[in-house]
Amino acid sequence: MLNAGIAADSYTFSCILKCFAASGSVKNGEWLHGYLLKLDLAACSCSVVNSLLSFYAKVGRVESARKLFDELPQRDVVSWNSMISGYVANGLLHDAIRLFHEMTSSGTKPDIFTLSAVLHACASSGSLESGKSVHNYITGQGLESNLFVCNALMDMYAKCGSMEDASLVFSQMPVKDIISWNTIIAGYGMHGFGKEAIRAFEEMRRDGIKPDGVSFISVLYACSHSGLVNEGWRFFNIMQKECKIEPSLEHYACMVDLLSRSGKLQMAYEFIKGMPIKPDATIWGALLCGCRIHHDVKLAERVAEHVFELEPENARYYVLLANIYAEAEKWEEVKELRVKIGRRGLKKHPGCSWIEVKGKVHVFVAKDGSHPEVRKIEALLRKVREGMKKEGFSPKLRYALMNGDDLEKEMALCGHSEKLAMGFGILNLPPGKTVRVMKNLRVCRDCHEMAKFMSKTTGREIILRDSNFFHHFKDGSCSCRGFW
C-alpha cells in the first residue's frame, strides 16, 4: 500500500495494530510505532495512539504501554480504559485499581467499560475494600441501576467473599438478564450455598428466563460443592431433555466433579468411559482430585495415565499425584515423580496467600520469614496449636507432604501461607471483624481444621478463598461440609 503511494489513514493504522496484537507480532508493532514517530506521533489521532497503547498491553509489554500512556499530551476515556484493561489482563490488579483512582482524580469520567474492568480487578484480587470504594463511586454517579454495571458488581462481591452484598445488589436490580441470574447462581455455588443456587435457578425459570449452557454449569457446580448428587443428576437430565442443550466438556467435568467429591469414584470412572465425546484433561483431573480427597491411590494411578497422555507438560497433575503418594507415605513414588518434574523442567506454583487490612494487601508464602510481624504470627499459631491439642485435635501430619519425623512435619504445617495470613488478620483486625484470606492453591486439611478452631476460639468468621471455592468458618464449622 505504501509502496503504491497510497497514504495510510488513522483507520488503517488502528486495524493493523489490532492484527499485530491478535497475532502477538511484537516486532511488527514496534516497527509501526517507530514509523508513527517519524510521522510525528503527537500529531496522530487519538484512535491511533490508543490502538498503539492497547497493542502493547495485549502483547504483555505493560511497561512500554505505561511509558506511552504517561507521555500522552491528552488522554480520553479510551486511553484510560486501555491502560486499566492492560493491567488487568497482565495480572497487575492493584496497579489497575490505583490507575482507576488516578483517573477519577484527573477529571476524566469513567464509563461502564472502565467500571467493568476495575471491578474485575477487585474481584480477581479479592480486594473487598477497593470494590466497595468503586461501588460508592457508582452510586454517586447514579449508575447503580445500570444492568452491565450491576452484573459486574455482583461478580465482584461474590468473588471477594461477600455473598450478602452480592445478593443485595441482585435483589435491588430493576431488570435482570441471563447474565445476572448466572452470576448469582455461580456465586452461591462457589460459596457452598447449593440449595440457594438451586432456588435461584428455579426462580429464574419461573420468571420466564430460559437457562443456557452457562446456567447449567453454574448450578451443576453448586450441586458438586454441596454434595447434592441427586439434584445434580436431575439438572443434567433437564438440560438435555427439556432444554435441548447438548452437554459440553465443561458440563461433563461438573458431573465427574460431583460424583468424585461425593466419593462415588468408580461411578465417575464409568461415567467418563461412557461419554459420547472424548474426555479432556480437565475431566480426568476432576477424578484425580476426587482420588486425593478419598485417598484412592490405585485408581489415581490409572487416572493419571490418561491425564499425562493428554497434558504431559502440565505440572499441576504431577504435583497432584505426588501429593496423593505423599499422603499415603509412598515416598519412593514421590521421589520418582519429583525427578520426572525436574527432568521435564516443569514449574510448580508456590502456595501464596494474601489479606487486605486497612487498604493494604499483605502477601505470605509458605514458611515466609520476611513479614515484619512474622514472629508475632508464629507465636499466635503456636498458641492456637496448643489449644487444639488440649481440645483433642491432632495435627494432620499426612498433609505435611514430606518424609520426616512428626515434629518436622508439624513445623512444616505451621508455616503454610494461609495460616500466616489468618494469624496476621486476627492480630490486626478489630475484635469480631471477619478475616478474609485469599489463596492461589487448594487449602490443605490441616489449615482447614485450624481455621475451624480459630473461628470458634476468636468468636469471628473466617472466610478463606482457595483456588476454586470459598470456605466460611464460623463457630467451629465450615460451610463446605467436607465437599471441597
Please tell me about this protein's structure:
One of its GO terms (molecular function) is zinc ion binding. Residues 392-484 form the DYW domain. This is DYW domain-containing protein. Pfam families: DYW_deaminase (PF14432), E_motif (PF20431), PPR (PF01535), PPR_2 (PF13041). Belongs to the PPR family. PCMP-H subfamily. This protein has helices at 10-23, 26-39, 46-58, 62-71, 77-89, 93-106, 112-125, 128-140, 147-159, 163-172, 178-190, 194-206, 213-224, 229-241, 249-261, 265-273, 281-293, 297-310, 315-327, 331-344, 374-390, 406-414, 417-428, 445-458, and strands at 352-357, 360-365, 435-439, 462-465, 470-474, 477-478. Among the domains are: 247-348, Serine Threonine Protein Phosphatase 5, Tetratricopeptide repeat, CATH 1.25.40; 353-478, no CATH class. The protein has a six-stranded mixed β-sheet with strand order 2-1-3-4-5-6, with helices on one face. Mean pLDDT is 89; it is low at 404-408. The relative contact order is 0.05. Strand 3, helix 24 (445-458) and strand 4 (462-465) form a beta-alpha-beta unit. With 484 residues, it is mainly alpha-helical. The chain contains 24 helices and six strands.
